[in-house]
Amino acid sequence: MNSLIRRKEIISHIAKIPRPIKGVELANIFGVTRQVIVKDIAIIRAAGVNIIATPEGYMITKEESRYKKVLALSHKEEEMVSELEIVIKFGGIIEDVIIEHPIYGEIKANLMIRNLNDLDNFIDLYKKNKAKPLSALTEGIHLHTISTDNEQDMQLIIENLEKAGYILKD
């Protein structure tokens, strides 16, 4: 299979499945290495296809009529799970985490945490790798793009994050 056909098939495959798919899984399906898949994904992205890499794998994001807001937050590392649970509890999707690094500028990581299962998988990966959150580089200060089905759900998320003391104030 030539690379152009493989890339079209990769797009089709990712678009068909309702969950993120790991690069190694795509490599097995197409009989290539994971590095070939990473290169293919980069070329596909450059062509304008909205494929993102999450901790759970690749997925194509669909532009939906969801209500989105970027929230500025600050908390201790041990409060991370509590913060994410608040967003999930009220129907929010944590699309990403963004920090402003003094040397590298904006650093953004796609998360796409949509439910408790996604959160559990994220936390398991976080613990397994003994990782530090990006906000550890900025003394707990970070941004999240949050999306909800409606403005009321977003307001509940904001109110509860404020109540917990996580919303960054002037």
TrEMBL record:
The chain positions of domain Helix-turn-helix type read 6-58
Ranges in a coiled coil: none
Any idea which GO molecular function terms this record carries? metal ion binding
Which superkingdom is the protein from?
Bacteria
Record-annotated 3H domain positions? 72-166
User: For binding Ni(2+), which residues are annotated in this chain's numbering?
Assistant: H75, E83, H142, H144
Supply the alphabetized keyword list: Metal-binding, Nickel
This protein's name: 3H domain-containing protein
Per the UniProt record, the source organism is Clostridium intestinale URNW
